[in-house]
Amino acid sequence: MEDSSVIDAQSKFRLAQEDELIALTKNGDTKAFNQLYMTHHARIYALCLRMLADAHSAEDVCQEVFVQVWQKIINFRGESKFSTWLHSVATNVVLGHMRKQKNWLQKVFSIEEKPVEQAIEMLPEIHGLDKKIVRLPERARVVFVLFAVEGYRHEEIAQMMGMAVGSSKAQYHRARQLLKEWVNDE
């Protein structure tokens, strides 16, 4: 088992290294940006996949997140951890994508959501609880992921999604109840 002072030193080194990569990226260094991408891509893709329940859309949106990061990194002031800022950018890009997609689908096909079975078939790489999260209705899934996985508060979720705080809490409760039922049914 590693000594906590060794872990702290490693963590401080990684943060200093990341700060240097951020500074270089702000100055247009694409290699530094690539390092940031490689470090954070998997978590951002996982967030996109959980929220969108569609692997193809998750890949596209994840790429859009990093395009946005490249364009907006100059706005990162370091008042929070880079990963926190990155997740905020990702969440906003995902929610924007969902709004656009829903509006387009409603105009063209007059439908609200893809069938759950179709979404699950497209995601053979996920297992366990993630497989159940994908089955949740869209709003309940997004609130659940933002609250339980990403750690946002209901007030923040309500603001991001344009809903009342009580609606966010209700959607989270609905998601938990459905997940509990599905786990108990196994």
Structural class: mainly alpha
> How many β-strand stretches?
0
Q: Radius of gyration in whole Å, from Cα?
A: 18 Å
Overall, the morphology is globular
What is the strand content? under 5%
Top CATH class of the largest domain: Mainly Alpha
Order of helices and strands: HHHHHHHHH
- Helix-residue proportion: over 70%
Helix and strand arrangement:
Blueprint: H1 4-26, H2 30-52, H3 55-72, H4 82-109, H5 116-121, H6 128-135, H7 138-149, H8 154-161, H9 165-185
Helix pairs in contact: 1-2, 2-3, 2-4, 2-7, 3-4, 7-9, 8-9
Summarize the structure.
By secondary structure, this protein is mainly alpha-helical. It has helices spanning 4-26, 30-52, 55-72, 82-109, 116-121, 128-135, 138-149, 154-161, 165-185. The chain folds into two domains: 1-114, RNA polymerase sigma factor, region 2, helix turn helix motif (Rna Polymerase Sigma Factor, Chain: A, Orthogonal Bundle); 127-186, Winged helix-like DNA-binding domain superfamily/Winged helix DNA-binding domain (Arc Repressor Mutant, subunit A), CATH 1.10.10.10.
Question: Can you walk through the features of this model?
Answer:
The protein contains nine helices and no strands. The chain is globular, with a radius of gyration of 18 Å. It has helices at residues 4-26, 30-52, 55-72, 82-109, 116-121, 128-135, 138-149, 154-161, 165-185. Helix 1 crosses helix 2 (30-52), helix 7 (138-149) crosses helix 9 and helix 8 crosses helix 9 (165-185). The protein is mostly helical and 186 residues long. 22% of the residues are buried. It has two domains: 1-114, Rna Polymerase Sigma Factor, Chain: A (Orthogonal Bundle), CATH 1.10.1740; 127-186, Winged helix-like DNA-binding domain superfamily/Winged helix DNA-binding domain (Arc Repressor Mutant, subunit A). The longest helix has 28 residues, at 82-109.
